[in-house]
Amino acid sequence: MRKLLRFLIFSLLVLGLSFNIILAETEKYVDKNLGFSIVPPEGWEVKDGKPYNLAVIFVGPADEGFMPNFNLNIVAVPSEVTEINEDLLREIKEELKAAGEYYGSLEFVSEGEREVSNYKGYEIVYTINLSEDLTLEQKQVYVLQGGKFYIFTFTSLEDTFEKYLPLFEESLSTFEILQ
């Protein structure tokens, strides 16, 4: 589980740091195979996440040379993993810190319990200082439901984080697990 978690956290961090894609119209995204739906922010491009081992990627307009984006990864978890507990959170934070240090430095900004469409969840917000003049801010939101671990990762420049965060939160509020 730890190796899988390490790979996932590292992959999500890399994708958030390096995405540059063209804009397109968006609408409600439904993936019947993975069993979820979500409405992306208006005007953000919907990209197939499968080439990156993700469920879906949403990419916003370029702002200050960077395209804010968020993605969803869904991972099947062992049956003994039934809640987002301190052990799991410790592992996530260790992997985030290691991945962040690979690129520069990582600083945790906030974390705490939250709800995502009536599902119990957890969020971690952090900055990644890539260079003297380039800092990204990311928010990861985690939901564990029905043997699946849903990981939403929102990434933008630190300077534009608050500008695009409401769009991410609005989209996240539309998330549904299909029955």
Automatic annotation (TrEMBL):
Q: Which residues form the PsbP C-terminal domain?
A: 26-177
Signal peptide limits: none
List cellular component terms (GO): extrinsic component of membrane; photosystem II oxygen evolving complex
Which InterPro entries does this entry report, sorted A to Z?
A: Mog1/PsbP_a/b/a-sand (IPR016123), PsbP_C (IPR002683)
Q: Name one GO molecular function term.
A: calcium ion binding
**GO biological process: what's one of them?**
photosynthesis
Q: Write the protein's name.
A: PsbP C-terminal domain-containing protein
